[in-house]
Amino acid sequence: MKSRILIADDHDLVRETLASYLAKEVDVDVSQSRDLDGALALIGTDGAFDLVLLDLTMPGMTMPSGLIRCLEANRPGPVALLTGTTSEDIEHRAILDGAADYLPKTLAPNALVDRIKRILAGDVARPRETGDTAGDAQTRGTPVLTRREREVLQGICAGKSNREIAQDLDVQEVTVKLHFRTLSRKLDARNRTHAALIARDLHLI
To answer: Which residues carry this modification: 4-aspartylphosphate (predicted)?
Structure first.
């Protein structure tokens, strides 16, 4: 009997392309949903899937509650996350919350297939081990931003320039740059776009 996979992603092209590819390359039956509520409804109707793939930022999906709801509904089947954001911090916390794996959408097709086959075989990801207790504690929690850093981050997520953010906050542009540099280190963000993606995934704004 073929394994059953459920893909929940609000990006139709990504979802349908992935479903078609997995059905062919992994030889599985694939069901689809555009949001978390739809995925939970399918699980309730069809029973637990051998694997559920959840888009990290689709409608209804918040962390960790969305993941936990799906894990409870799909028990004992595993649930993995699909994401366009690559962040060791988010990945580590997702695994701690029970995700079977954290799968960036930028993975090469053969690498994605390999990791999905491993999950179906019962090989799930484990939290990274570290001897740095303080560092581990920091990884487990959401990065702490100051009020001003959050305001700058909100401006960045709104697509505003440093000058526009400075005008909104009535500060110098150099001050905005300084706050962005600091919040980027806290988020481990490579650039403005990456910072906005991480902020959305972590629900910091």
So the answer is: 55
